[in-house]
Amino acid sequence: MTSSKSISLTEVGPRDGLQNEVRNLPTSEKIALIERLSAAGCKEIEITSFVSPKMIPNLADAAEVVAGTSSLPLTRFALVPNTRGYERAHAAGVEGVTLVLSATDSHNMKNLNRTTQESIADLVPLFERARMDGLQARVSISMVFGCPFEGNPGLGRIERLVGTMADKGFRRIGLCDTIGIANPNQVFDWMSVLRQRFSDVEFELHFHDTYGRGLANLMAGIAAGVRRFDSCIGGIGGCPYAPGATGNIATEDVVSLLEASGYDAGIALDGLLGASDFLADQLRKSMSSSIWRVHHSQCAKAA
Amino acid sequence: MTSSKSISLTEVGPRDGLQNEVRNLPTSEKIALIERLSAAGCKEIEITSFVSPKMIPNLADAAEVVAGTSSLPLTRFALVPNTRGYERAHAAGVEGVTLVLSATDSHNMKNLNRTTQESIADLVPLFERARMDGLQARVSISMVFGCPFEGNPGLGRIERLVGTMADKGFRRIGLCDTIGIANPNQVFDWMSVLRQRFSDVEFELHFHDTYGRGLANLMAGIAAGVRRFDSCIGGIGGCPYAPGATGNIATEDVVSLLEASGYDAGIALDGLLGASDFLADQLRKSMSSSIWRVHHSQCAKAA
């Protein structure tokens, strides 16, 4: 177990959050959101996704968002589902790409129309191209802790999958609890095993708060030595498998909890609250984050 | 650290939840709620509070609620703030009383109009009377992990307070994070120290989810060996110091998390969801619990 008190957060709101919102934002407001997140201290942001605009119309302006954020002191990641997406992202000028697959064949077929093994075969040349092009690359594996179609895939299957990815050269591997079904004991046990077995892999964890367990799972990941997590401003985005449910763990709740617990993410809470206020205005809805609700209740009380 | 997988929950919704709701329920509906909670498997419920009806009009029917639930297989607790409340509760026929005070003088003065030490002096004879009357007695200490007026009271102060209560004979001592400000590292560290030092005290923890940390704090308490917690159906009740914020940790979220994590509270999740549906209808609002939202989104999807 590492004793480092420094935690790295990758902000995924402009991608994972906005892609699942009913209301779309104009490109200029997406850029303004990313500027606010950067000003708050976010150093790495997944700013968009180069998927087919037919699939996710909200992110059809991916290249414009990249162009409009080039002067910010950020490592800008974009999700790329395939070669075409990679080429568009590279041409647009991102610093990093997020490659994706699912731990279960059922979800991988539904999402990417191929098996998990077929996805791995597709990702390896993209990973090689990213290396040659000087781009950072991370892989995000969906449905690691549970799948709406197959249930819990089991640690053994995840160990084999991580082993395959590590053999292919991947060193930054994200394990995603896409439907928020993980529990803290599972996270602690699995991450302890995986970190010991794959000591040259940098694991990152991506939690959703669907069942209210997101922050408990984050703390379990920290206890097991993980120091890199995804989070999402405002906790927006929801869950496509449970419409109306909460989305990703909210960046402001994460930063507040980390500060209280003696960890440091290098991000200013008041800057994040400004960003989530801006987002609430743009999306014309309340944010899912607890801190946002408390902040507004206190403002209301003071007024 | 105990390895027991059995967790005892005290349901506090009919008291801590309903006392803070804007909408009051008719007595018959309070009784119907308690019947549903009992049928779901709750074995201990804080069903009301014998405070002055002028202070908390929602609970003015305390004696009727006790009378209407006497045939249920429950240990029924009532909160009693003073001798008058104790006498009313005993006359009504509860099986247990919850005695209350605050860890900080500022909050104790505001809530009970006396210092913490003065409250202890008042509670000792009530505790003795409960013992002579054959009633169970627990003490709940508010603002243990943080106070809106004094901040973090510090572990040393809590150790001295618990020591005083233990010397007076109290064996069941509840530590309440009344404003939801605790963090999991604090909970784990403090409870590890307190359980070691006061090995003959049975600690119980009462968490609010104001900052979204409730379930993470619960898991930290379990990791430190605590096996008894308060929870509240629907997560209702809010926080008087942050209007609009979330209330107690929701019983259905707790039971779902415990089941997933390999613990057993002896309570059926579907029964709890029936109870929170009933409560949502009565209060004419959505519940704060994550499970309730997911359940309704899935119902909506299936419809």
Automatic annotation (TrEMBL), chains A, B:
InterPro entries: Aldolase_TIM, HMGL, PYR_CT
UniProt entry tagged with the keyword Lyase: yes
Keyword terms, alphabetized: Lyase, Metal-binding
PROSITE patterns cross-referenced by the UniProt entry: PYR_CT (PS50991)
GO MF entries: hydroxymethylglutaryl-CoA lyase activity; metal ion binding
UniProt key word Zinc-finger: no
Pfam families: HMGL-like
BP term (GO), one: ketone body biosynthetic process
Domain Pyruvate carboxyltransferase: 7-273
Family: Belongs to the HMG-CoA lyase family.
The name this protein goes by in its record: Hydroxymethylglutaryl-CoA lyase
Species whose genome carries this gene: Noviherbaspirillum galbum
